[in-house]
Amino acid sequence: MTFEKPSRTAPFNIGTRGSPLALAQAHETRDRLMAAFDLPQEAFAICVIKVTGDAVQDRPLKEIGGKGLFTREIEEALLDGSIDIAVHSMKDMPVEQPGGLVLDTYLPREDVRDAFVSLHAKGLDDLAEGATVGTSSLRRRSQLLARRPDLNVVEFRGNVQTRLKKLGDGVAEATFLAMAGLNRLGMADVPRFAIEPKDMLPAVAQGAIGIERRGDDTRAAEMLAAIHDGPTGQRLAAERAFLAALDGSCETPIGGLAELDGGNLRLRGEILRTDGTAVFSDDVTGPIEDGAEMGHAMAGKLLAQAGPGFF
Q1: Which of 23, 35, 78, 115 is most buried (most C-beta within 10 Å)?
Q2: How far apart are CA 127 and CA 24, in angstroms?
Q3: What are the residues whose beta carbons fall under 8 Å from the beta carbon of 298, sequence distance 6 or more?
Q4: Has residue 56 got a pLDDT over 90?
Q5: Among this protein's residues, is 290 annotated catalytic?
Q6: How far apart are CA 254 and CA 273, in angstroms?
Q7: Closest CA relative to residue 287, chosen from 261, 257, 264
Q8: For 249-287, what is each residue's pLDDT tens digit?
Q9: Which residue is catalytic, options 92, 111, 216, 229?
Q10: Average model confidence (pLDDT) for the chain?
Q11: Domains and CATH numbers, the chain
């Protein structure tokens, strides 16, 4: 070992949001590091950092600043040395990191699919005409309206328990969650039905956990290299290149998914008008090493088809 491992007196600090899902992801990261380096739990500290996106629950994300709202305070703590690494849900991550920070470690990806959640209906086709569906995701809202323009889509934020209570209170007939989050939380009892990507393309990087570090921290770099999942990194390279070329944010409805098959990578992507009245999509396959180039090219093709001012 060429670096100093964490000790009981000088723990390795892992920064995270405080939601149950964020904590589950931080614990998975810690447990993988413990196993990789034969370290006790006491060698690590989970540091909960409150972020603006969690503090403000009464307004849509697009009104308070987009994806950076789930990362800004954590990245500030990383830059000032309060934490050693930061654990993120990759679908919440902006495509560019602040100067001095590096995001190049990913854990094995979970189920990428969206979950249709309802106390009564078993799928979109079971919903009555004009039924109310809640979601805080512009992507899901746009995809839903493209398929069922008759539905009434309302803003729906909060953790899993909060959303289920809203369903029980009749605020909405159904909502959507990520299968990955439900699986990581062990919530097999949540009434959910997985939606295949062909019917609802997931968010870019959905189901993936990313770990951010300071660029000059060699100890963190070497530790994280031991738990990095290469195939997940290859898939996200293509998806995030697609997103970056589209200048994607929480204000732009974008879906994207890369999958590996031997030495090839299949990339599917789509952009939607926010009211669901227009959808442009593409599906390409090529060598894995060309994934980022494929993502950029697909974005350019879809933007050209959509025309200026599409979003």
Answers
A1: 78
A2: 33
A3: 242, 267, 269, 282, 284
A4: no
A5: no
A6: 9
A7: 264
A8: 556 899 999 999 999 999 999 999 999 999 999 999 999
A9: 92
A10: 91
A11: 12-107+208-228 (3.40.190.10), 114-195 (3.40.190.10), 240-305 (3.30.160.40)
